[in-house]
Design goal:
- The protein has one domain.
- The protein has 10 helices and 8 strands.
- The longest helix is centred in the middle third of the chain and has 16 residues, at 77-92.
- Strand 3 (51-56) and strand 4 (63-70) form a beta hairpin.
- By secondary structure, it is of the alpha/beta class.
- It is globular and about 55 Å long.
- Strands 1-2-3-4-5-8 form a 6-stranded mixed β-sheet, sandwiched between helices.
Length: 240
């Protein structure tokens, strides 16, 4: 059974620039919640998807956004993606959009698919993710106020450029902006969102250090940014 946590209550337009970058119409005045599967569901579904957002819109275009962070092409992952998408659609009775967030152009080109599951010439299922890579978003800057205004876009921008432009100034602006966004649940979610997306590269260690120092400065514990269980836990465990 999925549990949930509401996100972006103070940023109702947080999804608009992201959907614009994807070439899709943005949901109107959406309510966004992070869905967290229980342990049984994690065992059943596997690690192909890192986090899921339920986006309920007043215009009837509600959907589920399943996010998969990809640092390199991963053979066979499309089977897991297909499992997740079909399960989410069945469980929640909403269409599910798969978003692959990629840190380099080669991986982004691979992730676009389509990935067909076929017998001979007959295709029984196909998975075609939407992709965000370095060519889809401009490089992240060091404007803390921009992060505060558009926290999700800022997090995604930092991730897709993390192998080329995630210097300390960019990460510091992102961390400070997220912690100033006015909503503790959203800040915690996006801090962990970034940490998981940085798996396998040096920027992850710097990100953890920044969060620790900022949390201490604010008299909070660094663990405050790890507030929910979701499939991405496998990435955190693998890198620790």
């Amino acid at each position: 059974m999925f549990s949930s946590s509401r996100l972006f209550p103070e940023h109702p337009d947080a999804l608009t620039p992201v959907f614009t970058a994807l070439g899709l119409p943005a949901p109107r005045t959406p309510t966004v919640t992070a869905l967290v599967p229980d342990e049984a569901e994690l065992r059943e579904l596997g690690p192909s998807v890192d986090t899921v957002l339920r986006i309920e819109s007043t215009d009837g275009n509600s959907l589920l956004l399943a996010v998969s962070f990809q640092g390199e092409p991963t053979p066979g992952i499309s089977v897991g993606w297909a499992h997740w998408i079909s399960y989410l659609h069945f469980e929640h009775r909403l269409p599910a959009l798969l978003l692959a967030v990629c840190r380099d152009r080669t991986t982004a080109a691979w992730a676009a698919g389509p990935f067909e599951h076929r017998i001979g010439s007959w295709t029984s299922a196909a998975v075609e993710p939407r992709v965000l890579g370095p060519d889809d978003l401009p490089e992240a800057g060091t404007d803390k106020e921009r992060v505060t205004r558009q926290p999700l876009l800022a997090a995604l921008t930092t991730l897709v450029h993390s192998e080329s432009a995630a210097d300390d100034a960019v990460l510091t602006a992102l961390a400070r902006g997220l912690m100033s966004c006015g909503d503790t649940a959203t800040a915690r979610y996006l801090c962990e969102f970034v940490e998981v997306g940085l798996a396998g590269i040096a920027a992850r260690g710097r990100w953890r250090g920044l969060l620790g120092s900022l949390a201490c400065a604010q008299r909070e514990t660094p663990n405050a940014v790890s507030s929910f269980r979701r499939p991405a836990a496998r990435s955190l465990q693998a890198a620790s």
